[in-house]
Design brief:
Length: about 120
């Protein structure tokens, strides 16, 4: 039987993800402010903010995709796969990952949505 371990805390990734979305929100607010209060849309500041906004969206989605689809084992860094309920009973309610190389089941403590 495989060993069950809790995933280590990923505060740095969480902070990076949240800060990317905060940057996007601030830039959208700045563009809305510039549009409403008289800054011409063709100004260099609007163009720079629009470029940063697009780059932030692309980077934010890339970070979200890589974090949700490419979970790596904390011990050996091999890509893990999600397990079904028949492998571990906790997989019914939480996202549980399995590392074949280490033979360890990792509990992410992330609940599954009940949609």
């Amino acid at each position: 039987m495989s060993e069950l371990r809790k995933m280590p805390d990923e505060n740095s990734m969480r902070i990076l993800r949240y800060s990317m979305w905060i940057v996007v929100i601030v830039i959208v607010a700045a563009l809305a402010f510039l549009k409403k209060f008289g800054e011409p849309s063709a100004s260099p500041l609007s163009a720079i903010l629009t470029g940063i906004l697009i780059a932030s969206f692309v980077l934010g989605f890339a970070i979200e995709y890589s974090h949700s689809h490419c979970q790596r084992c904390p011990d050996c860094t091999k890509v893990m796969r999600e397990v079904d309920e028949d492998v571990h009973p906790k997989a019914e309610d939480y996202h549980i990952l399995y590392c074949e190389r280490c033979d360890i089941i990792w509990d992410t403590t992330i609940p599954k949505s009940n949609d």
